Amino acid sequence: MRRGIAASALVVALAVSMAACGSSGGSGSDGKADGPVTLTYWDTSNATNEAPNYQELAKKFEAANPNIKVNFVNVPFDQAQNKLQTAMGAKGAPDVFRSDVGWTAAFAKAGFLEPLDGTPAAADASAFQPSLIQQAKYDGKLYGVPLVTDTLGFLYNKDLFAKAGITDAPKTWDELKTDAAAIKDKAGVDGFWLKAADGYYAMPFLFGEGTDTVDAANKKITITSPEAVKGIETYKSMFTSPGTAKADVTTDAYAHMMDAFNSGKVAAIIQGPWEITNIYKGSAFADKKNLGIAPVPAGSTGKAGAPTGGHNIAVYAGADKAHKAAAEKFAAFMTSAESQAFIAQKNSTLPTRSDAYTADVKADPGIAGFQAILGSAKPRPELPEYGSLFDSLGTNLGKAVQGTSTQDALNTVATDYAKLLPGFAK
Fold it and tell me: Coiled-coil ranges per the record (predicted)?
């Protein structure tokens, strides 16, 4: 899941010296390798819907490992990156934590993470989706074990689509505009609501034109390319076409979108699997089968794709030997097939390994729906700063939907990227 990552925060993290990593782990350095250890784990999942289930898993780990206690700390996701980099750069860092895939390479580059190759944490590496293992690497070494994965999909209310005589999800953005207008006319509600001013939710529009924010392999900033401009023009049109919801740039925009979808006041959104449990609680989806899940629509090139998100479990490089060993055991337990299947059934999140997709897990239509489209998700490049690129993009997209020209908005983004990515050509 991704709610927004500050570029400035990442720059600070990369500027912290490696010497800081010599500080003690979150539990101190008093534990012996064969003695009792108290492991501090920072969890960044939703405190209400998800964290209790992760905490239950932590208790199962304690039961299986009586010499290891887990100090389970839930940290709000939108505060976690700053808190982690501050703690890892000074004192009080957790021994092990849940790291957004967009943070892992950046923390590894800063020297904050312990390489996991050859450790118990990575013993089952071959069981995971290869792209997710690759996404957890930096400079050829593995720094995280994939815990959950996600992507964006096209989520829709089948009943509202049926009222407009629509039986299939749209395959292109143009088809979506046509469907939205028909739904507004026939069902009396907006046909589509797109989260505005958020770079992550705009990525399918770039991918649909065969481009990205940057070309990491060739060290080139591509956000001002003709393809990117075309993609963002399409993005902007999704707020002004008949039957689409107007751009909401308020601080509560995300909640407004989800409330409207869950209550049947809008027929479709672009969203990830992390919201499935909340969607099922909505009045429009008392019958889970009413939720349709399809790939995001394609752009003018015929290409469609959404970013790969999710979370890894990472181990703090500054912890002592005993805490690192305990953390590696914990990472292996939390990412085992059994644990992933448990979390998937409780939280409706997507496992990162195929052997966790049991019959019971796939009985959840939300999981089955997202599993079907996960293969088309676009992995992130091995670029530590990539996660931070969404910040400037989101800010300037917010200005674009309020009147700033697309080209001017993207020129500003490119200028910000040039500061963040020295050596990249514009």
Answer: none
H or E element: which one contains 122?
Answer: none
Residues of the chain with pLDDT under 70: 1-35
Give tens-digit pLDDT for 21-49: 433 444 443 444 456 999 999 999 999 88
What pLDDT is attached to residue 35? 62
Is residue 45 a contact partner of residue 98, using CB atoms and an 8 Å limit?
Answer: yes
Q: Are 241 and 334 in contact (CB under 8 A)?
A: no
Whether the CA torsion 301, 309, 134, 112 is positive or negative: it is: positive
Half-sphere exposure of 322 toward its Cβ, with a 13 Å CA cutoff?
19
How far, in Å, CA of 41 to CA of 409, rounded? 40
Is this prediction's pTM over 0.85? yes
DSSP per-residue letters across 246-312: PP--STTHHHHHHHHHHTTSBSEEEE-GGGHHHHHTSGGGSSGGGEEEEPPPB-TTS----BEEEEE
Structure tokens at 97: 């934590």
Structure tokens at 4: 């927004």
Q: Is the dihedral of CA 23, 29, 34, 40 positive or negative?
A: negative
